[in-house]
Each structure stands twice: as C-alpha cells, then as structure tokens.
Amino acid sequence: MSDRLPGFSTLAVHAGAQPDPTTGARATPIYQTTSFVFNDADHAASLFGLQAFGNIYTRIGNPTNAVLEERVAALEGGTAALAVASGHAAQVVVLQQLLQPGDEFIAARKLYGGSINQFSHAFKSFGWNVVWADSDDIASFERAVTPRTKAIFIESIANPGGSITDIEAISTVARKAGVPLIVDNTLASPYLIRPIDHGADIVVHSLTKFLGGHGNSLGGIIVDAGTFDWSTGGKYPMLSEPRPEYHGIRLQETFGNFAFAIACRVLGLRDLGPALSPFNAFMILTGIETLPLRMQKHCDNAKAVAEFLAGHPAVASVSYAGLASDKYNQLARKYAPKGAGAVFTFSLKGGYDSGVSLVSKLQLFSHLANVGDTRSLVIHPASTTHSQLDDAAKVKSGAGPDVVRLSIGIEDKEDLIADLEQALGA
Ligand SMILES: *Cc1c(COP(=O)(O)O)cnc(C)c1O
C-alpha cells in the first residue's frame, strides 16, 4: 500500500468497510438482528458502563449502521458520526444534547419547510426556542445572540431556492458567541461542500436525499467535527457534567474529540429511540458508492436546465447559484466550485396559477415532495411544503406564490429540457 491519503471517490466506495471476517462477503452485510451475544458477564458489564465499545442492541448501534457512520464521517472530515432514522431525527437528537428547556437557538430563515415546522412547533413544546436570522445579513445572527443561545443552525445550500450560505462568516459569529455551528449539508452533500472545512462544528444530513440518492430509503446522520470545547462555563451539561445514567462519567472528559457523537448515541438515540434500520443503512451505503458520479451529473444537468429556463419568455426569474448572473454566484464559486447543487427555484410570469398549471403538464418530472432522487422532481412550495407559512414568510423563505422548485435528476438533460419546453409552451 502506498502512503497516499485516499481521495473522495475512493472513500465513497471503501471507507469503513472490510470484507466480512467470517464469510468473506465483500459487500457490507445487512446485520438484520436486534441484539448481540455477550462474551461473558464482564464483557456485558463493560459495554453497558461505556468502558468498552461493542454491540449491545440495534437501537444503540448495529454493524451495518457502523459502516455507514464511518463512511460519512470520512467523507465529511469529522471524528465520528451517528446514523438515525431520518434527517428530522438527527435534528432532534443534536439539539437534545445542546438545549435545556428555556434555551434558544438561532436558525437561518431559508430552510427546508419541514425544519421550519419542527423548529417552530415541536421544539417549542420542548421549551427550545428558535430565533430566526437572515443568511443574507450576517449581522442579523449577531443581533440574535443572547446568554441563552446554545447553537446556530444553517443549511449549506439552502432550501428551496438553492442559495449558498456564507458558512465561514456565520462560523465566526458562532465562535464569538461560544456556541457550536450546526450545518445541514443535505442539499450539497460532502461531494460539493464540506462544512467542517469552513468552521462547522456539527454536520447533519437527511440521508434520504442525495447521499442515499435513489428515493427509496429514509435516514439521517450526525457528524461530529471534534472541534468544539463543551466544558466552558457549564453551558452544555449533557457533555460536561457527570451523567447519572452512566455511573457519573463526564462525556467530554472521557471521549474527547468525539464526545458529541457519543452523547448523541448514548443519551439521544438510546433514550429517544429513532434507530435506523440496518436494511436502510445498506441501501444508503450502496447509494453513497456512486455519490461523486451522480452528484456531478445532477449539477451539470441542473446548470443546463437553469440556463434554458433563464432564456424562456414565460419565465420571470431563475434562482440558481450556478448561473453567472445569480446573486449567490460569487459564494457558489468559493464554496461549491464543482457545481451549485441540483435543487433550485424559478418563478413564472403568470404567478400562482401558472405554477400550478406547469406542475400538472410536466410528464417526465414527478410531482412530489422530495429532493435528491435520480429522477427529476417538481413541486410548487407555496401550495405544499411551505403552505403553513403566511404570505410574507413564504416570500422571505424563497417560496412565494409564483415560485416552482425543481430537483434535477440524472436523466439526459435534453429530455428534461424538452419536457419543460412542452409544459411551458402548451
Ligand atoms: C428532507 C430534508 C430534511 C429532513 O429529512 P428527513 O429524512 O425527511 O427527515 C432536513 N433538511 C433538509 C435540507 C432536507 O432536504
């Protein structure tokens, strides 16, 4: 073996995986079992006391899921990761380690519609208060900081308009406030952007989207960058204080630069329960093997489709950071030089009615609420994913009444353009 560090595509195929030691199976087996036999009573006790690593019960960990965790940690450049049942589960588990009732976190207003709901309603019922800020106005994050702020949450490429977030600028605000920066990297995937390289302390994903990539399995993951000092000022008791559940151990003291991933597993996943099925972990691992190939094709197709739309007389505007004329193009060149992703919006001159009509006339595009599938997808956010927002909030989050969102797949770009052309023209 050479001492060269493996490149991204090599990691996407190999990181975390070995031939199965008992059978020689080369693909990662699906360890479809709830529980694992202990060697003896001492072994069992050391696993339960966190003195040894090993398998106990699939709600806490599973060998198939462990390969997925190691692979995504490697692709993101983190110290460790924890796979969970969905992207939303990842968000709950992360914030449960950071916030006590009455605490606050700051979130960018341009966000996946489901996250806006989760933060505004479900999290409020836990006493976790979201304070909204605007990624186009970095000072709005600074102004939102209070003594109760425990985290900042942003998307790298933001829903629904595919705008690019200035991760470094917001990480400076987080550092100054002494709180971790959490980046939802779902729309970029680590192939396009690695937020940890730009100052993120925690990365979360909906694996359901580009990482799994085939629209067939839900999953989520949390990546610990290992960069944050949880011991300061007693702000993060889940990490810095003795844990009664584990004979009084302090997680940061014991686990150092992967303490956050451990906390998410042994305090979050163990007690809240959103475990990922090993079958889904297998499907997502298989998807990740082709991530670099798919992601490049997604981006190249998206750019061609965005250029076509920008030149069409029925289209009022296109919001795609990969276009030279786009307001986020400068940030796209800096953060995502291989491509600006495959999810973006455009608006029609005919407003709400033409948005609805276009969606009904498309044939190759599927009308559904998902992104990051091999297939091209379309949705009208104002009447679906963002319908719970009032009109002003819709416009602020990039989901105004005339806006249509596309997630461009890996079909032939000529076919996608032909489908849009017939639907726009008819
Ligand atoms: C889909 C999505 C989520 C939620 O993930 P699920 O797997 O559906 O729970 C979170 N953030 C972004 C950006 C998403 O696209």
Protein model, in words:
The chain is an alpha/beta fold and 426 residues long. The protein has two domains: 15-287, Type I PLP-dependent aspartate aminotransferase-like (Major domain) (Aspartate Aminotransferase, domain 2, 3-Layer(aba) Sandwich); 291-425, Aspartate Aminotransferase, domain 1, CATH 3.90.1150.10. The chain has 17 helices and 14 strands. It has helices at 8-14, 41-48, 63-76, 87-98, 113-125, 138-144, 167-177, 189-192, 237-240, 251-255, 259-272, 278-289, 291-310, 329-335, 351-361, 391-396, 413-425; strands at 80-84, 104-108, 129-133, 149-155, 157-158, 163-164, 181-184, 202-206, 220-224, 315-319, 343-348, 366-367, 377-379, 403-407. The strands form three sheets. It has a seven-stranded mixed β-sheet with strand order 1-9-8-7-4-2-3, with helices on both faces. The protein has a five-stranded mixed β-sheet with strand order 10-11-14-13-12. Strand 7, helix 8 and strand 8 (202-206) form a beta-alpha-beta unit. The longest helix is centred in the C-terminal third of the chain and has 20 residues, at 291-310. It is globular. The chain binds pyridoxal-5'-phosphate. Pyridoxal-5'-phosphate is lined by residues 86-88, 112, 114-115, 155, 159, 184, 186-187, 206, 208-209, 218, 220, 371.
Can you tag this structure with a few keywords?
five-stranded mixed beta sheet, 2 domains, binds pyridoxal-5'-phosphate, 426 residues, seven-stranded mixed beta sheet, single chain, Aspartate Aminotransferase, domain 1, Aspartate Aminotransferase, domain 2
